[in-house]
Known about the structure:
This protein is an alpha+beta fold. It has 2 helices and 4 strands.
Amino acid sequence: MDDLGKNMTKEILNAKRLLCPLPVIRTQDKVKTMNAGDILEVICTDPGVMQDIPAWCRINGHKILETISAEMEYTIILQVA
Length: 81
């Protein structure tokens, strides 16, 4: 992570047990408090986020770095534009 920039921060958003559209809304609210280049890891239990958050990122110019699906938990790692 250090290679991406010294001022970059990584934050984790716990959106477990929230159903659509709340994970996307919480992601949007969190991203508003972050700077360009920052990394946000969103952890959810609603499988719909695997389509919803990437679609929201495309619309808003954010970059999906990784998506992970394991043990009924869905993690999306994005970089703020």
